[in-house]
Automatic annotation (TrEMBL):
Name of the molecule in the record: AAA family ATPase
Source taxon at top rank: Bacteria
InterPro entries: P-loop_NTPase, Pol/histidinol_Pase-like, TrlF_ATPase
Species this protein is from: Microbispora hainanensis
Length: 955
């Protein structure tokens, strides 16, 4: 796979003007140590060690008019793991003191090759020496006898030209460059691959006039209209180092499969995707300003193992963190890889029914006996995890402490799936809306703004709270309805007991009963306190165990926390012991003294009193039964008085629970609107209309399912109820919900049916209301908690339309297949940072949309998310400049990565990959060239711009 290499493409050596370290030179007893072979090797190793310390992977030598140190540097680079490109800096004849040009050759170039280049291409010979005669070391480079235009024109294959310090006096793009001049024409030459424009804080701007500084800033920002080259010319950053201290001081990150001249050429051709200068703001988002250290989630590989239904052997595919493109002929296994990723990380829930059935059938045929696994990296931390799927266990991820259900946020879409999600359904006008909302909720889930599972859990929790509060309130209200009967019974019992009592001894009985009741309350309170102490002690033992797990962290801090816990434990147990002692003392005090005597006296007197009643002929059994019933009745009335006090608080809690239920739906709606607003702003071609609580068809379907109604049962009544409840004015929704819920809870429907009728809807047949009235209370409360879902409409801007004109926007449901596909692709590409897998997204799209929509969005998205694309269209891997192209083939019923000496995997600078793209996707090189000849001999639009601008400048 390709990766980012830290490159310094302009460094000098002691071959010309390099400043040797004073300490190193002084330690050697030789007047010119760099002339001795052993010292040259030692210095070259020191040179590479300095580069390695600064993280530089690749350099290009750029001594003026010489490659004297090339072999030593290449050898030392090999030892240090640093790639050394042969190169030379040339002073041309253009300008008063010559424009500089850096020529970089392939890795196989030698010092002799550079000497030949200087002679044959640049024109240096005995009559035209490389240095000004008579100048001391370092000699002054003499201008080449040939112009920079001539050098570029005759530059042979195997070489790349770069304009060093382009905005300086010796640069190609100095302030002296004006349209039509030699320097301007060179800037637009195909052979000039890149230029070094310095940085916004570059010393090249110091001391310059405001006009020159402003010009330089506009040039770097590519905002000069009379320089068409700025659209295609790569910018690099180099150190131009002439000392060890400055090596790698400025650098360029370049993405390549490996450091080769072709890798550099491809990077310069697609600088937006492959080049990041050290001053580029994109580096700020990477840890250590290293673009290899991605912070978004990504899948490293997927393995299809076990017994596959369409391949005799297993398959393992590696991915890059950026843009991956899978190509291959029909039956090569491209969609199998996609299905494997979906099987490990996704599900078929929420898919259109036809897509779901086809996919599950594929799983059964291909993966029934397979073991699928994938390695992925979490966002931010980059932690590596492995997810494994089998038919028996589903998908699980090992988290160290054990395997849990895989919930890594990877999203998979096929073009067919996207199209089907928004296909119109005459039987269900909100079908497309629900599919869009599913995608929106999945995006919110993947972005960790809120997980859909959490919403469902929270909703269920609040629904249960509502149910329990309503059930408790109804129970209390039913109990309170008994109060009048209990009060009448209390009075009657009181009269009966009074009649049986001896009037002269009634006060005596009541006094005894009061003492014994108080004694019972005191003992009950003491028992509760004792039980509380026991529970507090057990809780403290559990929460503050007298053990400590050793930690490898800073010991003083852990000891401090241990001390705090020990003191807290001691104080809690000391307080509990004190409480127990005081409780025992209180018990002892109750067992002796005046109170104990009162209690004992009341017991004895009550027994004596009942004996007296017997002696007087009163039926003791009847008397005791009436007294017991009277006591229970009074206790029940006391309890109801307490419950009556609870009722107001219970009603308040119930109102808050209903509000909370609506609030979680409202919050979800707000998150949905925030997401689609962000998509609208990013895409500029999509708009959304979200209508809260307006999907009454789904609400009605759920109500019918809960009531277990037949398909034709009460159809019009349910629709009328749903339309009245959810399609009415927004400002009265709360009143309608209150009326609906009150009717269900009280099981009284006259007011509800009247309101439905007054709104113009059919109130329904009496049988419908009898059906509701005969429904179990639990089911009715469940109906009261149902809340209709939102609906969302997605509109796209018609081709050539103006955003400010409402008539130029069209609902995607009514678009053509191509328009629907384009809108849905824009929708999924403009949301989230989770890995995104697209299976043949170009279907139904014309080439213009593929280039302008898919390719552009893939190029933008690769910086913040991983993309895996299966395609048959060459524009996606080529113009998208994929980090990794994976070529699959099917040979002898075996799906595999194509191999010929090495795997056909990597970016387009890998020759085998380039050939496969040409053969599989372009129909071969001959067909590609012939099409180009038939379309237009002018293959580069900027050449036409240059010709036009040059003509205008000459005129």
């Amino acid at each position: 796979m390709s990766r980012w290499f830290k490159c310094d493409l302009q460094v000098a050596t002691p071959g010309w003007k390099f400043k040797l370290p004073a300490s190193w030179k002084g330690d050697l007893k030789h007047p010119d140590p760099v002339k001795r072979a052993e010292y040259r090797q030692s210095f070259a190793d020191m040179y590479m060690a300095t580069l390695r310390k600064r993280g530089v992977d690749v350099i290009a030598l750029a001594d003026h008019h010489t490659a004297e140190w090339l072999e030593e540097m290449k050898a030392a680079g090999g030892r240090a793991g640093i790639t050394v490109f042969p190169g030379v800096e040339v002073v041309t004849t253009n300008g008063s003191d010559g424009v500089h040009l850096l020529l970089i050759g392939g890795l196989d170039k030698t010092e002799r090759d550079i000497d030949i280049l200087l002679a044959k291409v640049c024109g240096f010979d005995d009559d035209h020496p490389r240095y000004v005669p008579g100048t001391r070391r370092p000699p002054i480079p003499a201008p080449a006898p040939r112009s920079i235009q001539d050098i570029l024109r005759d530059l042979p294959p195997g070489w790349i030209a770069i304009g060093p310090h382009a905005l300086g006096d010796n640069g190609i793009a100095s302030g002296k460059t004006i349209m039509g001049t030699a320097r301007w024409q060179v800037l637009h030459d195909d052979k000039l691959a890149a230029i070094d424009v310095g940085s916004p804080a570059d010393p090249v701007d110091h001391g310059k006039s405001e006009e020159i500084r402003s010009w330089n800033q506009k040039f770097r920002a590519r905002k000069l209209d009379n320089f068409p080259c700025l659209e295609r010319l790569a910018f690099v950053s180099t150190s131009d180092a002439y000392s060890l201290e400055t090596l790698g001081g400025r650098f360029t990150w370049i993405r390549m499969a490996e450091p080769t001249l072709e890798g550099l050429r491809q990077a310069f051709l697609d600088f937006d995707a492959r080049i990041i200068c050290d001053w580029d703001q994109r580096l700020t988002k990477y840890p250590g300003r290293d673009p290899n250290q991605v912070t978004h989630a990504w899948v490293e590989n997927v393995t299809l193992d076990g017994k596959l239904g369409n391949s005799a052997t297993s398959l393992k595919v590696e991915f890059a963190p950026g843009l991956n493109v899978i190509i291959g002929g029909r039956g090569s296994g491209k969609s199998t890889v996609v299905s494997g990723l979906r099987r490990v990380y996704g599900s078929t829930e929420g898919l259109p029914e036809k897509i779901k059935v086809d996919l599950e059938d594929f799983y059964e045929r291909v993966f029934a006996q397979a073991t699928l696994s994938a390695t992925h990296h979490l966002p931010i931390s980059g932690e590596t995890q492995v997810a494994v799927w089998t038919t028996a266990d589903g998908s699980h991820t090992d988290r160290g402490a054990g395997a849990i259900r895989t919930n890594f946020p990877l999203r998979v879409f096929s073009q067919k799936e996207l199209y089907e999600r928004i296909a119109p359904d005459s039987d269900d006008p909100n079908s497309a809306s629900r599919h869009l909302l599913t995608l929106i909720d999945e995006a919110l889930d993947a972005a960790d703004e809120v997980q859909q599972g959490d919403f469902s859990t929270e909703r269920s929790k609040i629904e249960n709270v509502c149910h329990n509060l309503v059930a408790r309130r109804l129970l209390i209200q039913a109990e309170l309805e008994q109060r009048a009967d209990l009060q009448a019974r209390e009075a009657e019992l009181g009269r009966q007991v009074a009649h049986l009592d001896n009037p002269a001894t009634r006060e005596r009985r009541e006094r005894n009963e009061a003492i014994l009741r108080e004694h019972q309350r005191l003992e009950s309170s003491a028992s509760q306190i004792s039980q509380s102490i026991i529970e507090l002690r057990h809780g403290a033992e559990r929460l503050l165990p007298d053990t400590e797990v050793q930690s490898a962290g800073p010991e003083p801090h852990h000891q401090t926390l241990r001390n705090i816990k020990t003191i807290l434990r001691q104080k809690i147990f000391s307080a509990l012991s004190d409480a127990e002692a005081e409780l025992r003392a209180a018990e002892a005090a109750r067992r002796t003294g005046e109170w104990a005597e009162q209690v004992q006296g009341a017991r004895e007197d009550d027994e004596a009193y009942q004996a007296e009643l017997v002696s007087l002929g009163v039926d003791q059994e009847q008397y005791l039964s009436l007294r017991e019933e009277l006591a229970l009745t009074r206790k029940r009335l006391n309890d109801l008085a307490v419950r009556a006090g609870e009722l107001a608080e219970l009603e308040r809690s119930e109102r808050e629970a209903w509000l909370d239920l609506m609030l979680i739906h409202t919050r979800r709606g707000q998150r949905r609107r925030h997401l689609v607003e962000d998509i609208k702003n990013r895409s500029q071609t999509l708009r959304f209309v979200v209508r809260p609580y307006s999907d009454w068809t789904e609400w009605a379907r759920t109500l019918r399912r809960i009531l277990n109604l037949r398909s034709d049962g009460y159809s019009e009544e349910v629709r009328s109820l749903a339309r009245w409840l959810w399609n009415g004015p927004t400002e009265t929704l709360e009143d309608r919900l209150r009326c609906w819920r009150s009717a269900l809870i009280t099981n009284s429907y006259s007011q509800l049916s009247g309101q439905i009728s007054s709104s113009g809807e059919d109130r329904g047949r009496p049988a419908w209301w009898r059906k509701l009235a005969g429904t179990d209370q639990t089911v009715r409360i469940r109906l009261a908690t149902l809340v209709a879902n939102d609906t969302v409409s997605m509109l796209f801007l018609k081709s050539g339309g103006r955003p400010e004109r409402d008539e130029d926007w069209q609902d995607v449901v009514h678009g053509s297949p191509g328009q629907r596909s384009a809108a849905m692709l824009s929708f999924v590409l403009h949301q989230g940072t989770e890995p995104l897998v697209l299976d043949q997204p170009e279907d139904d799209l014309d080439t213009t949309l593929i280039s302008e929509l898919i390719v552009n969005e893939l190029r933008k998205s690769r910086w913040k998310r991983q993309l895996i694309v299966v395609t048959h269209n060459a524009n996606i891997p080529v113009l998208g400049d994929a980090d990794r192209v994976i070529v699959l083939e099917n040979v002898g019923n075996t799906i595999r990565i194509k191999t010929s000496g090495r795997a056909h995997v990597g970016p387009i600078d890998v020759p085998e990959v380039r050939t496969d793209i040409q053969n599989v996707m372009e129909g071969g090189v001959k067909a590609f060239i012939k099409r180009g000849m038939k379309y237009d001999n002018e293959v580069s639009s900027y050449r036409r711009d240059v010709a036009r601008l040059t003509h205008n400048s000459d005129g």
